[in-house]
Amino acid sequence: FRLVEKFVVNPFKWTKTVASIPSHPRNMLGNTMFSILGSNAITNPMNAPYYWKALRIIMGREGKYRETWKELVRARVADTQYWGSEMPKLMSQMISDPTDWPNKILETAKWPIEKLGNLYNNEDLIYRVSSYLKYREKGMTVNQAAAEVDKWFTNYARLPKAVKVARRVGVFGPFFSFKANTQQHCFYVLQPFLKYPLEKAWGPSLLR
What we know:
The structure is a single chain. This protein has 208 residues and is mainly α. 67% of the residues lie in helices and 0% in strands. The protein is built from 10 helices and no strands. The radius of gyration is 19 Å and the shape is globular. Residues 90-95 and 204-208 have low confidence and may be disordered.
């Protein structure tokens, strides 16, 4: 299974996501929809301060905002994205035991591979971090805010063990963990309908 994951599943995922230019706007569009569900719509000008602060934190995580970044990592708001969680770093996997010439080729390709991966992660992070900041400002604890972020945005690090195993072998398709994440989002969206009558949950106007 490890050979299949390393040389078939992960390279396929990389070419279809991180290395695919159209996948980046699709990723942003998907996160935009998640942000609406999570009451932190990027299309709402009132939320702009949270997104601006999130961007500064992401860009300054090695400097001014190092401590804030550590808090985000401890809360599992950061370092849970596709590149590194769903698909382990391609370089570290494929240079595990190379001969000289493949090693040189991969070293040459390392910079663009890493940059594309970090770009893909940041497309998720800007939404996750800004939502976390908003939830904290609204009075949630660290754990409550992190849990609320996970309700509405994909987390590729915190998944059931069965999902983690299935995504490694690609039996249920190469993007099984994304489907598992979106099913969770659907559950939270439908929860008011399941828990209360429609009129009580959403108001009588919806039924007119």
